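Hi R.,

Here's the chain you asked about this morning:
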Amino acid sequence: MAVRGRPRGFDADEALDRAVEIFWRQGYEGASLTDLTEAMGINRTSMYAAFGNKEELFHRAVARYAEADMAYAREALTEPTAYEVVESFLRANADALTRADRPSGCLSVQGGLAEGGESGRIARFLADSRLAGEHALARRLASAVEEGDLPAGTDPDALARYVMVVSEGNAVHAAAGATRAALHATVDIALRALPRTHAAPAT
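And here is the predicted structure, written out as tokens:
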């Protein structure tokens, strides 16, 4: 019996990882279909069949990035105190932004900064993706307020926004060449600004 359809003949996850790198280095607008398909090792027909159009591919790439490169953000939420949550996230983020085997900076910040038309949709998609992470952090910090781990009256939404501003600012500076040590120095200052009901753990 004939097998219906033909096998793709390529590793979809590996191809997607290569697309992540192209979008990360060049941004959505800067990454041409030729750049993408050459890096992925496939032709356009195979790309469309496996991943859809360029925008759909980008959405898949961002999801892949969130799953693999941003795993530390989810892990940070499991730390026992709010201080440790924030410290774990910002420290791991500073390391991730300056990995030797990855582009400097952050895909979700650098992927689509242009405005208008298709680029406007991409910028909005990335902003929504970052906001989802901010909301998850805010929920964790709200629990810390309820448990007395953060002072009563602490605004968890504002605190989560502050943490993300530090993270995203470090991403911009990393892309411009800031060193890992410089990013951690910024984290040191940010951590001293955190509200807390007891002495912070030694670092």
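One quick note: Residues 1-7 have pLDDT under 50 and may be disordered.

Cheers,
M.
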